Amino acid sequence: GPAHLFRLAGKCFSFVESTYKYEFCPFHNVTQHEQTFRWNAYSGILGIWHEWEIHNNTFVGMWMREGDSCETKSRQTKVHLVCGKSNKLAYVSEPSTCVYSLTFETPLVCHPHSLLVYPTLTEALQRKWDEAEQLLYDELITEQGYKEILKEIFEEAGLLKATEETEVEKQSKKITLEFETVEKCTKEYKQLSEEIKKLRDLLGQHGIAYKGNSGE
Known about the structure:
The protein has helices spanning about 125-135, 145-155, 165-180, 180-205; strands spanning about 15, 20-25, 30-35, 45-55, 60-65, 70, 75, 75-85, 90-95, 100-105. The protein is an alpha+beta fold. Helix 1 runs antiparallel to helix 2. It is flat, with a radius of gyration of 24 Å. One of its GO terms (molecular function) is transferase activity. Keywords: Disulfide bond, Glycoprotein, Golgi apparatus, Secreted, Signal, Transferase.
């Protein structure tokens, strides 16, 4: 992300509302502490630093995900970055169950170019973006195709987490490459055979029947 925001790393900012104290530690996590004398007062994590939210090719917020479990999901928090005279956590809400919204004010985002994504990228990724712009201008790709390329660029830069589907696709591509030659195929087959034997032995130890087939 924007290098000038890294000076916030290692610092924490708190906000007290009613009986709750919220604490935001940029690039780390968000926590909530119930300030009561009840025996089961809640104190836990509302999200861990995960990825950026990018809109119109601008950083608009930080997603803190995979916090403490809440019903059937994990708590998560979106932190909105807005211009302010000093660094402070200004507002906290819970727009939907277990999803929190924080507003963080900082002078570090007051410059109109302070949250642009393009300057934070490597030269190679900037070139890839330039090429996508040209393709869109020449009408060789659609708006949707352009957005897909940008998403890939942001994922490659580590600004967004790759979706599970993308990870599966990468894995399948990797496997395809692994089996390019007979030597590689033989080596992989040997490793898989040994793995199957270990798993069969393990199942046998636990008295679980193994149903294989002749083409294993």
